Backbone:
């Protein structure tokens, strides 16, 4: 019964430590991102030069601290902005970029990969050559060049990620499509006169789906890192907005006097990436019948 | 040796290179900003601007510009850098050795760590050591080289200032060290004090580049080793009375290493791509940091040349390792 | 059907090369205990070829592994003993086994393509045992390699030594494996389905070769499911199913008057050219079930007795 099999799948997923840990991390990020206006203790843009470079209240509170002044649990930066709030709002950007960029990359890459794998011949030759050319560029450099060309802003960052990394999905989906196409059930579907699109959607896609899910979570991690890199180089969003990469870049300048400014966003990034990778890896182990 | 396959690959590489050049060229011409506008001194006349534009060939159509550029590249002329006011080719020639040395050292470290970890994990599979190595590898691989660079900057810059975190060697020695392939040259000259300084400056950026690659190599090698260890010929080797270390290193490893090697090629190429950020982080004077300066400065000729250089490196490395794989695998050598 | 056994003398000599007495082996994994050998008793005499016959999964490979000390780590010997060349090797550790392998006992594996290391030359692979057990070096190794290949009737042995496994045909590869097995003149040679992976025409040559090579003081344990091979080549046989020896004796006796129902069933399932009009009968499922039940009963008795 389909219902029984589904509940078994959920049970298995919940028992896999990677899925649980990764899932919790992602859930935590989603909560922070969605609830930012209510969760963040202060306005991330609010500057208070008098209270600048306060060390995190989590670690220590000076004995002579003014009990009426707002508590900065993670400290403040060079302009007196509350670090905790900036990080929470940074989660929003990170997650937004991650989800949108990963989805679009998956769509573009998978589509081209499926076309190449299914039709073969000239279509495949053209697309494969395109992939080869694309993969001759160092991805980071390409992203930086692209953003400098397109201009800064959230959508250019997303576009850069999609343009640089679609080849990852293309290769995998192409290989998978070719493999599936060689199997008998696809031949019989074609014999029945089903259109290629229907075959792709109803026959091949379900078999490729588990792999895609893993790749998407992986891609989300990549997107977060790329966004951070671009912010770090100063090419992402307007400098006012709080992004993890921007915080790292600024924090780097004050690393000797206020190391937490760099450490905290780095920790956030590492947790996000590790959580996403753990989730992706765990999902792959549970969903891929071959591995099991 | 089957040279035919290699020649085939070489021929395939040329259109790829052409495609790369084309993409870069078109991309940069789509630039909304005007590089000339950044260069003109205040008080320049319309005429001056027009002259400058003609000098850089920016007044022609894209097609014409591309053909001109191709012809000049054929002559070895890559133009003049807008930001550095220097011949682009010489600029790249100056900085390339530094990146190549950094990349090579990083790759060596990655292969050493990754190879060792992979073999040990395969040999001790099922025991705690193997699980530990595998878990560490998974975590290390998840953290990109950029983050590792930042971690090391924090670590060695602030917490434990054991290693320098900028420059290529001790400024006091730089005169004696020379330029270009200083690591190689001083090694051959026997100037170990300089070599030491160079290596110590390289350690943090090289490690940052190497760690994620090492982690991946160890996982792939472990999987290949396990496959080899389960084979009949390993069983036969044991049946002959050969010891387990011999079997591991001389029967299993030579078979397991080939797939890992082709992967290393791709990884080396990506590692070189990572130098773009790492060099900037560690103020290391290679083409990586040159690339960033070029992009930030909208320096068209320089950007084109640098991107083309990276692409050439990628393609060359892939070719070389393809050749190496053919060399190592006797089955691929004979022409069937 | 020609019978090659006549050449050897009819009287077995001295102590057996391999003696397995009442061997019980079980596999302990993930909290479960599975018996795989239930009181196996067999012996291989010098100058004789003894067949171990049965279907796949019946325990044949486990017996071969036990006789070479290559049982998996999860396998435990609970009762019985193995005596190889008059040495009790039942509880030997890896280090001691290594002194015997290649020198006192060797094995010919089933698939010669996977049995040879693809990236090493034939000469190098053959030289391993010569270095290790005979201490030969340099020119002596080459000379001995040539001699060994000539012994297995290899054409152009000098060329073969320089080649890689994929450059040889299946039959040639198997000859190399046989040459390696006989290199140090071991007392016991175990052949695990040596002809199954080969073409029919090559099979006969390989069997003839094995027959020719069995020297004084050497015994062969032929593990096979092919009764044709047993009839052609072997002097005595044991029939194994579910880890139990169901019947054993000289091949002539067992073929002429099989005592156990399973043996009868196996013989009936084998094409017999000496009996035209004989119909093939697959082994009855009911018989298998009965045998499985007997095995389980045996396990219960063992548990009570232990």
Residues:
């Amino acid at each position: 019964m389909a219902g029984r099999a589904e509940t078994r799948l959920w049970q298995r997923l919940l028992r896999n430590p990677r899925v649980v840990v990764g899932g919790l991390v992602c859930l935590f990020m989603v909560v922070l991102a969605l609830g930012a206006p209510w969760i963040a203790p202060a306005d991330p843009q609010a500057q208070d030069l008098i209270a600048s470079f306060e060390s995190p209240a989590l670690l220590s509170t000076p004995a002579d601290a003014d009990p009426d002044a707002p508590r900065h649990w993670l400290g403040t930066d060079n302009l007196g902005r509350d670090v905790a709030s900036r990080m929470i709002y940074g989660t929003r950007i990170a997650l937004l970029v991650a989800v949108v960029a990963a989805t679009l990359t998956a769509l573009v890459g998978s589509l081209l990969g499926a076309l190449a794998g299914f039709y073969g011949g000239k279509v495949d030759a053209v697309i494969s050559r395109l992939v080869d050319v694309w993969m001759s560029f160092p991805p980071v450099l390409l992203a930086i060049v692209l953003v400098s060309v397109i201009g800064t802003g959230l959508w250019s960052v997303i576009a850069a990620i999609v343009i640089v990394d679609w080849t990852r999905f293309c290769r995998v989906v192409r290989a998978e499509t070719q493999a599936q196409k060689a199997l008998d059930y696809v031949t019989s579907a074609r014999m029945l006169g089903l259109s290629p699109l229907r075959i792709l959607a109803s026959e091949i896609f379900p078999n490729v789906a588990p792999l895609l899910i893993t790749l998407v979570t992986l891609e989300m991690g990549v997107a977060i890192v790329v966004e951070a890199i671009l912010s770090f180089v100063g090419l992402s969003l307007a400098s006012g907005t709080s992004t993890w990469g921007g915080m790292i870049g600024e924090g780097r300048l004050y690393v000797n006097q206020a190391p937490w400014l760099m450490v905290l966003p780095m920790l956030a990034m590492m947790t996000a990436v590790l959580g996403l990778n753990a989730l992706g890896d765990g999902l792959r182990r549970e969903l891929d019948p071959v591995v099991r | 040796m089957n040279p035919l396959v290699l020649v085939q690959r070489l021929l395939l590489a040329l259109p790829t290179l052409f495609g790369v050049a084309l993409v870069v060229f078109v991309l940069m011409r789509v630039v909304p900003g005007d590089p000339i506008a950044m260069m003109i001194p205040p008080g320049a006349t319309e005429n001056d601007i027009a002259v400058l534009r003609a000098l850089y060939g920016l007044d022609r159509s894209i097609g014409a510009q591309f053909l001109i550029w191709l012809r000049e590249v054929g002559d070895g002329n890559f133009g003049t850098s807008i930001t550095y006011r220097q011949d682009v080719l010489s600029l790249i020639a100056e900085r390339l050795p530094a990146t190549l040395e950094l990349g090579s050292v990083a790759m060596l470290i990655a292969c050493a760590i990754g190879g060792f970890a992979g073999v040990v994990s395969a040999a001790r599979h099922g025991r705690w050591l193997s699980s530990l190595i595998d878990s560490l590898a998974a975590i290390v691989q998840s953290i990109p080289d950029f983050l590792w660079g930042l971690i090391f900057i924090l670590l060695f810059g602030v917490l434990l200032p054991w290693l320098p975190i900028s420059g290529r060697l001790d400024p006091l020695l730089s005169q004696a060290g020379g330029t270009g392939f200083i690591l190689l040259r001083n090694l051959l000259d026997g100037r170990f004090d300089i070599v030491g300084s160079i290596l110590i400056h390289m350690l943090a950026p090289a490690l940052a580049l190497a760690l994620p690659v090492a982690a991946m190599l160890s996982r792939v090698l472990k999987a290949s080793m396990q496959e080899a260890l389960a084979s009949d010929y390993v069983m036969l080797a044991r049946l002959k009375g050969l010891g387990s270390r011999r079997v591991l290193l001389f029967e299993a490893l030579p078979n397991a290493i080939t797939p890992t090697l082709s992967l290393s090629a791709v990884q080396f190429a990506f590692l070189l791509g990572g130098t773009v950020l790492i060099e900037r982080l560690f103020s290391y004077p290679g083409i990586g940091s040159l690339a960033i300066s070029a992009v930030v400065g909208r320096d068209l000729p320089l950007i084109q040349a640098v991107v083309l250089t990276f692409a050439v490196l990628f393609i060359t490395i892939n070719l070389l390792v393809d050749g190496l794989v053919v060399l190592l695998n006797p089955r691929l050598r004979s022409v069937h | 059907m020609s019978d090659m056994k006549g050449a050897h003398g009819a009287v077995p000599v001295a102590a057996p090369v391999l003696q397995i007495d009442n061997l019980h082996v079980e596999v302990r994994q993930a909290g479960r205990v599975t018996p795989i050998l239930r009181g196996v008793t067999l012996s291989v005499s010098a100058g004789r070829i003894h067949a171990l016959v049965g279907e796949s999964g019946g325990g044949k490979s486990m017996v071969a592994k036990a006789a070479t000390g290559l049982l998996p780590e999860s396998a435990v010997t609970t009762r019985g003993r193995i005596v190889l060349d008059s040495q009790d090797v039942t509880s030997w550790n890896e280090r001691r086994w290594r002194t015997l392998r290649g020198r006192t006992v060797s094995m010919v594996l089933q698939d010669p393509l996977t049995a040879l290391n693809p990236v090493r030359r034939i000469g190098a692979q053959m030289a391993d045992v010569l270095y290790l057990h005979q201490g030969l070096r340099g020119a002596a190794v080459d000379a001995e390699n040539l001699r060994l290949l000539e012994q297995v009737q290899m054409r152009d042995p000098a060329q073969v030594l320089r080649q890689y496994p994929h450059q040889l045909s299946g039959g040639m590869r198997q000859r190399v494996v046989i040459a390696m097995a006989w290199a140090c003149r071991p007392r016991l040679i175990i052949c695990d389905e040596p002809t199954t992976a080969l073409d029919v025409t090559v099979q006969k040559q390989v069997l003839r070769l094995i027959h020719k090579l069995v020297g004084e003081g050497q015994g062969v344990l032929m593990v096979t499911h092919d009764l044709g091979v047993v009839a052609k080549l072997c002097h005595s046989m044991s029939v194994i199913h579910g880890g139990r020896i169901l019947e054993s004796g000289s091949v002539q006796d067992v073929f002429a008057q099989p005592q156990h129902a399973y043996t009868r069933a196996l013989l009936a399932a084998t094409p017999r050219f000496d009996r035209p009009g004989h119909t093939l009968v697959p082994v009855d499922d009911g018989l298998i079930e009965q045998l499985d039940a007997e095995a389980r009963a045996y396990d219960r008795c063992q548990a009570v007795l232990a």
